[in-house]
């Protein structure tokens, strides 16, 4: 009886692997169509690719799956090599195995493996970004400040108050256009830096980019870290972060201790925001007329 139960358990595991391999591809395609970021998780996609890869290699080598071999051995030890006595083995066996020449399975496995590779190319996996702060926040690749020295001052950032509601404490909130990426900032925000360089103009399709700079310890990702994609302009130190679903600019690392937050992504807690510095004004578009009281800097600002 013990061997019989173990054989049934192996068969169920085998069935689970089949469901994972077939269902995984369906989930990847459907999930990307519906904007489910988790389906592109690195570990999930790597495990799925490895599973079908092992199946394809085994079929071309003409070898049985180790689970099949183990199950057969257990059934022999149980003294019941047939599948007539167990409800589980009878029905699950019928779902997994069909009688056909070996080459049919080899072709089918290979074709399915090709589809998985196509999905890997069409919907590439993304590594999850984690922080050293308890694994809950966000850590991005090291790089120098955006636009070489970009918004650099802590100016405009106030310490949160210790009492009252979340709004009174200076809790700001923000999200991307589709809402997949969301974040909190535990601070009062007031100072906005606007970069007018040509790279930022091309990135946003406007006169530049407006950002708020906050300490990393005041910043927290709420959801959607796995949806964040990055792009670094070749041969420069300029890098951008954006939602892989809707393309909206999202917060990124300004320097090792601070994050820059696109001002337009702040949905709550930004009532006091005012432009305090314009940088790379010497590179601004000819049609860009600055009309606020923010200080203007021909190039970068190192305050």
Task: Summarize the entry for a quick read.
The chain is built from six helices and 14 strands. With 303 residues, it is α+β, with helices and mostly antiparallel strands.
Detailed description of the structure:
The protein has 2 domains: 2-122, no CATH class; 157-296, Metal Binding Protein, Guanine Nucleotide Exchange Factor, Chain A (Beta Complex). It is built from 6 helices and 14 strands. Strand 10 and strand 11 (258-262) form a beta hairpin. The strands form 4 sheets. Strands 10-11-6-5-13-14 form a 6-stranded mixed sheet. Strands 7-3-2-12 form a 4-stranded antiparallel sheet, with no helix packed on it. It has 303 residues and is an alpha+beta fold. The chain is elongated. Helix 1 crosses helix 2, helix 1 packs across helix 4 and helix 2 (42-61) packs antiparallel against helix 5 (102-122).
Percent helix range:
25-40%
Q: Strand portion, in percent?
A: 15-25%
DSSP summary, beta strand count:
14
| SSE class | alpha+beta
> Which sequence of SSEs, written as H and E, runs from N to C?
HHHHHEEEEEHEEEEEEEEE
The general outline is: elongated
Counting DSSP H or I runs of 4 or more residues, the number of helices is: 6
User: Into how many domains do the coordinates divide?
Assistant: 2
């Amino acid at each position: 009886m013990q061997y019989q139960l173990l054989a049934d358990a192996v068969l169920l595991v085998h069935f689970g692997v089949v469901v994972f391999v077939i269902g995984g591809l369906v989930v990847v395609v459907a999930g990307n169509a519906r904007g489910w970021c988790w389906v592109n998780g690195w570990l999930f996609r790597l495990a799925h690719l490895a599973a079908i890869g092992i199946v394809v290699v085994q079929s071309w080598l003409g070898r049985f799956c180790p689970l099949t071999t183990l199950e057969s051995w257990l059934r022999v030890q149980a003294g019941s090599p047939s599948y007539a006595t167990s409800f589980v083995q009878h029905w699950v066996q019928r779902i997994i195995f069909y009688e056909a020449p070996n080459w049919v399975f080899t072709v089918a496995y290979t074709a399915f493996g090709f589809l998985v590779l196509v999905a890997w190319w069409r919907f590439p996996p993304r590594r999850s970004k984690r922080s050293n702060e308890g694994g809950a926040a966000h850590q991005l690749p090291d790089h120098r400040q955006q636009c070489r020295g970009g918004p650099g001052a802590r100016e405009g950032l106030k310490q949160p108050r210790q009492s009252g509601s979340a709004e009174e404490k200076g809790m700001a909130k923000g999200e991307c256009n589709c809402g997949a990426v969301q974040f909190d900032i535990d601070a009062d925000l007031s100072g906005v830096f606007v970069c007018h360089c040509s790279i930022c103009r091309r990135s946003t399709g406007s006169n530049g980019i407006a950002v708020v700079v906050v300490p990393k310890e005041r910043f927290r990702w709420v959801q959607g870290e796995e949806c964040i994609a990055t792009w670094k302009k070749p041969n420069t130190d300029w890098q951008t972060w954006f939602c892989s679903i809707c393309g909206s600019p999202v917060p990124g690392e300004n320097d090792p201790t601070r994050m820059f937050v696109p001002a337009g992504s702040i949905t709550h807690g930004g009532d006091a925001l005012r432009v305090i510095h314009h940088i790379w004004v010497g590179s601004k578009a000819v049609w860009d007329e600055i009309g606020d009281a923010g200080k203007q800097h021909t190039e970068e600002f190192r305050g």
